[in-house]
């Protein structure tokens, strides 16, 4: 790190200490999350034990949930007035854009049924993965490979193939971990 203009010190053992987090540094997301957590705590939310990015508030016979992923937030609850109140309180501290009802979030399609319940599916994510890997026309079979087959290493695999393979395996893991 270079000394700022106008600040000339010849002592090379000095270091700069940040007084607050700067955008772009690795500490910035943590500082933002801590600020959000403190703000939510002040308005009555607590962090769920099973997932620290899920916040819950019981207030006047209503329950409100806030799910945080990086800088995206989903707010849902048993009362639209309670949700509106939370949004107003957050707008007093953070720039907030209301994008309406989430149709698709982190690979999960969200549909609201006529009775008010939410249906979560991954059909679109799975179909997109099948199309991306040119497997959309494949026919499923119960046995994918002959039992007892001895596999040999493939000669000359390229870096792109390895990267694509890891991406596909990661997508399959994501599907199984997040299945609704």
- Gross morphology is flat
Domains counted in the coordinates: how many?
A: 2
Report strand order across the widest sheet.
Answer: 1-2-3-4
Distance between the termini: 47 Å
Rg: 24 Å
**Biggest pleated-sheet summary:** 4 strands, antiparallel
| Average pLDDT for all residues | 84
Binned, the helix content reads 25-40%
Describe the model.
It holds the Pfam family RVT_2. This is Retrovirus-related Pol polyprotein from transposon TNT 1-94. Keywords: Oxidoreductase. It is an enzyme of class 1 (oxidoreductase). InterPro entries: DNA/RNA_pol_sf, RVT_2. With 180 residues, the protein is an alpha+beta fold. It folds into two domains: 79 residues, TATA-Binding Protein (2-Layer Sandwich); 68 residues, no CATH class. It contains four helices and seven strands; from the N terminus they run H-E-E-E-E-H-E-E-E-H-H. A four-stranded antiparallel beta sheet has the order 1-2-3-4, with helices on one face. Strands 5-6-7 form a three-stranded antiparallel beta sheet. A hairpin with a 6-residue loop joins strand 1 and strand 2. The longest helix is centred in the C-terminal third of the chain and has 20 residues. The protein is flat, with a radius of gyration of 24 Å. The protein starts with 27 loop residues before the first helix and ends with a helix.
